[in-house]
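Q: Make up one entry.
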Amino acid sequence: MSDPTDRRLRIGILGAGQIAQAAHLEAARKARNAELYALCDAAKDLLAPVAAAHRPQVTYTDYDGMLADGRVEAVIVAVADQFHVPMALKAIEAGKHVLVEKPMGVGVEEC
């Protein structure tokens, strides 16, 4: 019987750009209690080399597709600032745990 404390949280990262590459991808890969399960970016020319370097189990070019994947348990939102709030809300509505890269939003009202 497996030990439930050995279970790893399956993370999907939205955005394969600079901040994901500098911080989130490697952290998700190295975490003892989590795994880099999915990577999503609309830019296929960016997604392919980043995925080759970090080896998520699956990749998506469509965020709704990643959110529909029941194996994705948590999402890191690492896209342009103006998309933080709408993308975080979509993940929350899909029942995912969410970490939003700073800033949370682009204005106090939005946050």
